[in-house]
Amino acid sequence: MAFTLTTQGVLIIILVRGSRYMAWIYYPVRNDPESRAVTGDLKSTTKSNAPLDAQSIAKLATSIPAMFSQKTTVNSSCTWVRPSFAAALYTVEDGTGTDSSTVSVLFAHYTDASAAQGAMRQHLAMFDGNVGLVAKKPDRPLGQVSIQTGTGVFWVRDAIWVRVEAVLSFGPTRASKTLDPPLNPAAPASPGNTAAGAPGTTAGKTTTTTTQASRSDTAKPSDSAPTVSVLDKALALAGALDTHLTKFAVPAAAQLKPNTAVKTSSWKGKRGAQFSFQLADAKGTHAVKPCEPVAGDRGARNLVSLIRNGSAEGEYTFLACQEGKGKVNLLVARADTLAVGVAEVTVEVVAK
To answer: Which residue segments constitute the domains of the chain, with CATH numbers given?
Structure first.
């Protein structure tokens, strides 16, 4: 389970899985991304139909027997869906006890390559310190632009931004460290979503870690640590993932997109009423289905509240909160490729 904290301008996302936990920290911006390692403008018009689900990642990991065993499991941690991208965070776990290892994988599938490169710039801007001291060109070039740090690598392949990192465990509690998550910290949360799109709250006892994105972990491995380091695994998996992306590269006209047709595109009713919009065909869509007001449409602000964050059947259920008229975007993503789509609907709320 995951939950978020915000203190003194710093956003902290904590993921708890059994006795392990991972923490990502959004520091205030301290680097000028335009003057750092990612410069220029990526002009690629190529799109991708690559499956980016947990099953595909597991298949790729276990195809590297020198790095991952056949017992490797992949778990989905968080999913974000916005008008311009959909993203999913996974943990790749191999082994048990002191011989276990965890690699985190994040895909962010944008509507175009320039936006994906912008996400990479945002990630660099959040590094606490001089990026040049901790980042370098990868040992193996990935995508059109890529950067390697002491804990992993991140890159842009056409319209997809990818981050793969070793989750370094240390101490008797097997606590974990990793770098910041990549998404735009200024992106507004959609109705019905928690900050940064991370779901839920946590119960029971929790612990916290402090991390700095600009410094590699210096914890000593245990005596029983495997010969292959977690970083080795992360870099090997990154190479396999990038090859996977290249195999499914397609022209823009051939990209598979989610079906955004709705059965009814408008609703009019009284304040306090509950109502729904329904996708005409929800097959193959991701379970996470948020919404948000159409950009610039002031009439849609506070007009309705999303009661349920979409459904597998493609239903978006709302509560009419405030009198007025406006447009709302129903956000849809493919479950396999994370390609995003938007269905625009009109809502008019009148007095009781």
So the answer is: 2-252 (no CATH), 266-350 (2.60.40.1220)
pTM: 0.73
Query: Could you tell me which of 44, 65, 79, 27 has the C-alpha nearest to residue 335?
Result: 79
Distance between CA 202 and CA 29 in Å, rounded?
Answer: 28
- For residues 90 and 220, is the Cβ–Cβ distance under 8 A? no
The tokens for 39 are 């410069």
- Cα distances (Å, whole numbers) of residue 34 to 117, 120, 181: 11, 11, 19
Computed on alpha carbons and rounded to an integer, the radius of gyration of the chain in Å comes to 21
d(C-alpha 343, C-alpha 351), whole Å: 26
| Three-class secondary structure of residue 119 per DSSP | helix
Residue 287 has pLDDT above 80, yes or no: yes
Torsion angle in degrees (nearest 10) through CA of 187, 188, 192, 197: 20
Q: Find the range with the poorest average confidence among 6-10, 248-252, 344-348.
A: 6-10
Q: Give the 3-state secondary structure of residue 272.
A: coil
In the beta sheet, which residues pair with residue 266?
346
